[in-house]
Specification:
The complex is a heterodimer of chains A (230) and B (472). Chain A has eight helices and twelve strands. Chain A has 230 residues and is of the alpha/beta class. In chain A, the strands form three sheets. In chain A, strands 2-1-3-4-5 form a five-stranded parallel β-sheet, sandwiched between helices. In chain A, strands 6-7-8-9 form a four-stranded antiparallel β-sheet, with helices on one face. In chain A, α2 packs parallel to α3 and α6 crosses α7. Chain A is elongated and about 60 Å long. The two termini of chain A are 13 Å apart. Chain B is α+β, with helices and mostly antiparallel strands and 472 residues long. The chains are: A alpha/beta (230), B alpha+beta (472).
Amino acid sequence: MSLMRILLIEDDSEAAAYLVKAFREAGHLAEHAADGLDGYGRAQEGGFDVLIVDRMLPKMDGLSLIGGLREQKVETPVLILSALGQVDDRVKGLRAGGDDYLAKPYAFSELLARVEVLARRKPASNSAPTTYRVGSLELDRLAHKATREGKEIVLQPREFRLLEYLMKNAGQVVTRTMLLENVWDYHFDPQTNVIDVHVSRLRGKIDKGFEPPLLHTIRGAGYMIRDGAR
Amino acid sequence: MTALGKLFRTTVFKLTLAFVLLFAVGAALVLGRVGWHVRTLVDDQILETIDADIKGLAEQYADGGIRELVEVVERRTRQPGSSLYLVANFSGDVIVGNVKALPDGVLARAAALETSYQRLDDPTKRRALAKVFILPGKYRLLVGHDIEEREQLRGILARALATSLLWLVAIGAVGGLFVARRVLRRVDAMNATARTIMAGDLGGRLAVNGSGDELDRLAQNLNAMLDRIGELMSGMKEVTDNIAHDLKTPLTRLRNEAEQALRGNPDPASGRAALEKVIEESDGLIRIFNALLMIARAEAGNIEGVVDMDVAAAVRDMAEMYEPVAEDAGMMLIVEADAALPIRGNRELIGQAVANLVDNAIKYGAPVDAAQTDDARRTVMLTAHRVGEVVEITVADRGPGIGVADRARVLDRFVRLENSRSRPGSGLGLSLAAAVARLHGGALRIEDNQPGLRVVIALSPAAPSNQAVTAP
C-alpha cells in the first residue's frame, strides 16, 4: 500500500504517540491533533486520506466533528474509535457520518487494515468495476461467476460474497472481524474461529490444484488475496 | 410540624373537608327549596280560603246590603281564633271588624298583601296575609289570615338547617381526622420502613395487612420493587465476586508469561513468543470484558438498535455460518425454520445468542462414547418456529446433556461444568443467551432431549418492554 496521510484526532497523548509511531513503521504518515477543534480545523484544510477520530474529545466531541465536516462537504473517510464499543454506539457513529467503527481496545493490525481499506476505497467508491482479477482468478460480479485459469469455480452464495470482498480489497489485509461485518453483516465476536473455517473452504476451492496460491493468511492480522508472482 | 398540623395536611383530611363542604351546600339547597315550596303552598291555601270568605261575604252584601254584612261579620269575629275581618266605608272609616291599627293606605286598593296587625282583644303585633275587596257602594272589605304558623315553620326549617349543618361539619371533620389518622399511621409506618431500608437494612419490607386496599397494593408493589432491586444487587455482587475470581486466572497467566520472559535467557525468539502469548491472553481478557458488558447491558434492558427483524433469517444466517464448523467437528448441523418470524428485536444480540448455543452444541454435544459413530447421534438440530404468540428458537444435540441439578446454575456467569473445564471457553455464552431472551420479553429453558441437551430461547414478538425503542 502506498503512503497514506492520516490525521489522528485523539486526546490520549500516549496512545496517539504510539499510533503515530506504529503508522510510520507501516510506511504511512500520521499527524496528531489533541482536541476536537484543532482536529476539525486541520481536517477542513484537507490533504488527508483518512481521519481517525476518537468519540470523546475535549472542546468538540467526535460525532459533532464528523457531522460538521460532512456538512462542509469534507468527504474524507472517517474511522471512529470508541471506548464504548456496543452495537448501538456503532450504529450512532455510522449514522453521524463515520465510515467505519472500531472499539477500544483494539489490535493495531486491525486498525491498520481498516484504515488502509478506507483510504483506498475513496477513489473507487462510485465506479466499482464489474470484474475483479487477481492473477489467474477472475470474478464476474454481474454474471455471479468465478473462474480460475478459465475453469469455473462453483461457489455457495456466501463464499461468493467472501471472495468478492477479498478481491475488492486485493493486496490488502482484511481481518476476521472485517469479514464478519462485511460478508455476514454481524458485528459480534464468534467464539470459535468461524471465519477461518469459511476461508479455508474458499481456499480449497480457489487455490487447490492451482499455482501459485493466491489467498494468504497474514499471521496475527487476517487474510489477503494477492498475486503471489507480484 | 405538630401532630395535628400533620393531620390537617393529609390528603385524606383535605378530601374529607371538601366533601363535607360540598354536602353542606347541597343540603342547604335542598332544605331551602323545600322551605320555599312549603311557603308558597301554605300561601296559596290561605289565599284560597280568603277568596272563598270574600265571595261568601260579597254574596251576603248583595242579598242584604251593608246591614246584613255587618251582622255576619260581627258574628264571625266573635268566634275565637277566627280570621281577621274589617269593613270600612269609602273614606276608610271602620264600620265593623276585629282588627285595629292597620298601616295607612292598606284599604285604599283592592289587592292581596302581607301586613302586620293587632287584634282588638290581643295587644301583640302579629303578621297576616290579607285581601282587600271593594264592594259595590265603595265599601271596603278586608279579610285576612294569621300567618304566624307559617313563620314558625320557616323558623323551624332554618334552625334545623343550621344545626344539621353544624353537626355535619363537626362529624365530617372528626371523621376526616379519624380516617386521616389511620391512613397517616400506615403511611408513617411505610415511611419509617423506607428510612430503615435507605439506612442500609436492605432486607426490610413494608407491612402488608392483606386488606387489598390501595395502600396495601402500593406496599406490595414497592416490596416487589425492593425484591427486584435486591436481586439485581445480589446478582451484581455475585458478578463482581465472579469477575474478581475468574479474571484472576488469566491475569495470573499473563503476569507469569511476562515474568518468565524477563527472567529467562535473552533469546529474541522466545521473547517474541512470550509477547505473542501475552497479547493472546489480553485478547482473551478483552473478549470476556466485552461479553460481560453485553450481558450487563442486555440485563439492564439498556439496548438500542431494536428494529423489525426476522428471527428465521437470523437463525438461517447462523446455521450457514456454523455449518462448516460443525462439519469440521464431525457433526451435522440441521436447520429447520418457518419462512418468516417477524419480531421487534435486536438482530445482533439474537444472532449472537443463537451462535453461542450452536457453538456449545458443536463443542459439547457429541456423544460421550467416542466409539459412537451413529450419524443420528452426531447431529445438532437448530429450529425456529412460532409457538402460539411466542417465537421459539431451539438448539438440540444428542450429547451428554446437563443434569437437572446443574440446569439453573449453568445460566449464571462464568459457570462451567466439570466436563467442559478442560476446553476453551469463558462460561458466559449461556448467560448472554439467557439475558438476550429476557431482554426480548422471553426466557431461556434448558430441557432434556432424551438423550442430549435442548436449549430453547423463547422470544416475545412485541417490542422489548423495559426500554426506549428507537429506530435504527
